[in-house]
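Consider the record:
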Amino acid sequence: MDRYYIKICNSTNDTAKFFIESGVEIPFVVISEEQTRGRGQQGRKWISQKGGLYSSFVLKKIDSKRALIIGALAAYKTLISFLPVKIRFPNDILVGKRKIGGVLVEQTSGATIIGIGINVNQEAFPEEIKGIATSLFLETGAKKPVSEIADILICEVEDLERLDYEKIFQEYYKVVSLRGKCFLHLRGGREVACEIKDIDEELDLDTTAGFFNFNDIVWIEWIY
């Protein structure tokens, strides 16, 4: 997989889209040290300070659920050798209750973009997120070369991409956390408070409020 390193950009996903439109051969990955307009799910701002790993993997078109699981598992497997992390369904990477990484999947014509952000060497976070965000440095007290974490992440994505969906889901199912109360924000503006009891291979949810198709869920708001 070809690698494109950028010091700073608006968003690695947006840069990846520009590269696709410019005819760059797929697959490839864009990696940046800093984003000025990083974004997460539902267009929410992803604060992307220097010291983090911000990456966008461009693959030939695959299903969004497969892409989401590849991204979450790759981030999890990259970090698990350094500290105890978990995947909070569907794609947040947590240390305890604090977020250390996340995944954003976007589709374009002919390509799938898996954006993966990991907080690596940040020493502090802005006031509005310092209670819910953490970094590898803050948790371990040791700084790691971002390039080293990037190399591990790229290998994990490449390895997972080769597996069939059933194997990827089995790995994901073993480590994903469904614990806790949440609000399901559904298409049409409906909100449902529930606890998730189980998920199936389609990521459809069996909850205390009934069964929900994953494709009908806009986003999940977790309540501790």
